[in-house]
Amino acid sequence: MSLDVGSVLNFASARRSSLKGDRTPSVKLMTDRRRVRGTIRQPVRAQWKIEAHTKEFIDTMAHNAGISSSYMIELMAKHIQLDERGVPEWFTTPENVRERPIDAA
Fold first, then answer.
1. What crossing angle do the helices spanning 52-65 and 69-79 adopt, rounded to 10°?
2. Which of 39, 67, 77, 89 suits a disulfide with 71, CB 3.0-4.6 Å?
3. Model-level pTM?
4. Rounded to an integer, what distance in angstroms lies between the CA atom of residue 90 and that of residue 81?
């Protein structure tokens, strides 16, 4: 089964709204499996600012997998395919994007 971003975010929205009010969830929540305390050799707290919907997307993927969000990000970084420059294969830069010629007015 393949999920797109929209369905994952819809699940996140339903999950968030199900926790409002009486705090009785209408969506069954799984317990996140976390790493054993002390198994990270050099832990750091990432202080990036990202869009709220992106964080919800990562949180929901992690929740669906039964792992913490930080572990999900580590796994994503570990499994990403890089090109010869060390950049993700899907990432486009000005070097490898051809500009469309400007139409003559």
1. 90
2. 67
3. 0.57
4. 9
Mean pLDDT of the chain: 75
Distance between CA atoms of residues 35 and 38, nearest Å: 8
Q: How far is it, in rounded angstroms, from Cα 105 to Cα 100?
A: 15
Q: What is the DSSP string of the chain?
A: ----HHHHHHHHHHHHHHTSTTS--SSPPPPPB-PPTT--SS---------HHHHHHHHHHHHHHTB-HHHHHHHHHHH--B-TTSSBTT---TTT-PPPPPPP-
Helical pair 52-65 and 5-18, crossing angle rounded to 10 deg: 90
Q: How far apart are CA 64 and CA 58, in angstroms?
A: 10
- 79 or 2, greater pLDDT: 79
For the chain, how big is the Rg over CA atoms in Å? 19
Tell me how far apart the alpha carbons of residues 102 and 88 are, in angstroms, rounded to a whole number: 29
